[in-house]
Amino acid sequence: MRILVLHQNLFDRLGYERAIDHEAHDVTYAGAPEYLDNIPDRVRCEKFPWDPARDVAEQLRPLLAATPHQRVLARHEKLITPAAELRAEFGIPGQLPDAARNFRDKLAMKSAVAAAGLRVPRHLPADALPATAPWPGRTVLKPRDGSGSQGVRVFDSYADAAAHLRAQDDPRAAARLELEEYVDGPIWHVDGFLFRGEPVIVQPSRYIGTPLGFERGEPVGTVQRDDPALADWAVRCVRALGGETLTFHLEAIETADGPVFLEAAARCGGGYIVRATELRTGAYLHTLDMASDVDGALAERLIGPARTDLHHGFFLYPGHVHGAAPVTVRVADGLLDDPVLTGHRLAPPGTRCPAAPSYRPENLPLSGTVAHPDPDAAEAWIRRLFARTTVHVHHPAAEAYDGTAAGPEDHALAHRLAEQAGELLLGLRTETALADPGSLKDLGDARSHAFLTAELARHRPQDAVLSEEGVADPARLDAHRVWIVDPLDGTREYAEAGRADWAVHVALWVDGRLAAGAVALPARGTTLSTARPHPAADSTARDLLGSRTRPPAFLARVAARVGSDLVGMGSAGAKSAAVLLGEARAYVHAGGQYEWDSAAPAAVALAAGYHVSRLDGSPMRYNRADPYLPDLLVCRTEDAPALLAAIAAETAAEPVAEDRP
Hints:
Elements: E1 2-6, H1 11-14, H2 16-19, E2 26-31, H3 33-36, E3 46-49, H4 56-66, E4 71-74, H5 80-90, H6 97-102, H7 106-115, E5 123-125, E6 139-143, E7 153-155, H8 158-166, E8 177-181, E9 187-195, E10 198-208, H9 211-215, E11 220-224, H10 228-240, E12 246-255, E13 258-265, H11 273-281, H12 285-295, E14 311-317, E15 326-331, E16 341-346, E17 351-352, E18 366-372, H13 375-387, E19 389-393, H14 408-429, H15 437-459, E20 464-467, E21 481-489, H16 491-494, E22 503-510, E23 513-521, E24 526-529, E25 543-547, H17 554-561, E26 565-569, H18 572-580, E27 586-589, H19 595-607, E28 611-613, E29 632-635, H20 640-651
Parallel strand pairs: 1-2, 1-4, 2-3, 20-21, 25-26, 25-27
Antiparallel strand pairs: 5-8, 6-7, 6-8, 9-10, 9-12, 10-11, 11-14, 12-13, 14-18, 15-17, 15-19, 16-18, 21-22, 22-23, 23-24, 27-29, 28-29
């Protein structure tokens, strides 16, 4: 028999040699060169390299036309459809395009399951939006052919989701998306194997956390549970999708009225699902499926004895959200010695995880498996692990600040000057004779600049100064110490009666790094500075702050991706302060700033232990010949991975504009 294998996995992990007798059959592995390279030399086979940038089926048609094959195997989700197309075209048995479509297109799969009388979320194509809301409450937007929760966004309402879609630049993008009602409840996954429509292996498990949380930077776990009714319901769903002989991974939401179908795939689940299923049922899903396909009969020889006295589970910490920065995992003492843990993989300190989303343990900072007779005990251990384990990112962005490079008197001077300049501006603002906003802005800039430069000349005569309102002196580029000041940040807001989102910025740069800084918020009577670093505030704030007047379009998509609301506010200092005070989740700026806009906010935030970087995660650099520094992210360190990942995803197709303000 000639067998074509569409290969995009680790060879040994899939168990090809257990499923296929390579001496008895002529096997060709087709795949990208990096995957063909992981096939051991001992394996008798041919290799067909393809170009990952081109259509897979198109590249394989000449091979099948020249040499008839009796089987086409595919284990990776993205290869299920091309494999089905080739089978249909060349008369090869196996899953055909209609069934494959039901397991890839989320609209098609929900329609098929609903037609069988099984409950699904209310849903509709994103390119056919009704004027009135088809359901109340939260709404999910997701790619029709996505996997791993990539690209999934949750909105507070249907109206918000519809408004987001209507604001997109490319109306054709909506054709690739679907909307559905948000159904609340624990998420289960059911994994198994059907042969000719009959269940052979069916194993329910319940998530701890969610795949969407994993995509956004949160760990996820799962533990097997006995639920015969759910297992039977899942089999009915798979049959409704046209599943006959296949492995499957199905997800469902538990509600008081019974399970609600979420989605299904004609493949094995990720992480340790295949291993956990084998430990409990005796069947390794990959080999069982492939061998049964090749043999044309159920490969019972590959089903070992079941061991149902233990419930198995696993946990995964995401790696893709750290921007390929070095990470170190810190686990509470004794946790990894608990007998409930049957194995784990802990990345060495300083490991860089791949930036592409992955459930594969080799791509994660920490993962492992558990087992216990009581599934509640296994779940409780995983929850303890999540509560007592942290992933620390060694981000180069933190190198932008070194408070030890400035003396205590420098920190105190920055605080005092920002505060006093703010008092001057408050007094000027209350002068009733200055009713013209334009005059007030100009006078405020000028007076505050004059005060700050005079005071710095008096107290630090040897230091250079870079001020928004001054003339840049090229000598600063050779100076060891440079004060970077914005005498009035948020002039527009300063001139508007009643607004408090304006600030005074005073920062000190020493030999390549920020060393001291202060942000005064005069209208609020608050000054944040490196002299008195503000402790990280416990906060559940959701707002993502952006420019009040010129937010780039991608910011709204970033906010939606991380479950936040985009809110405009004036002054970089005011927005950074809102994050430090726990009033906002993050501040993201793109589209143009200068060093004086961000130097003091960056120094204050870094001194307080917050994350500050460019939007690509690189450090903020100051005292450059060109002071233009167009973008900025300020957030809690634990939020940085998810925000940087969301920014990268949303700016991949829309480069950040750098129009100077």
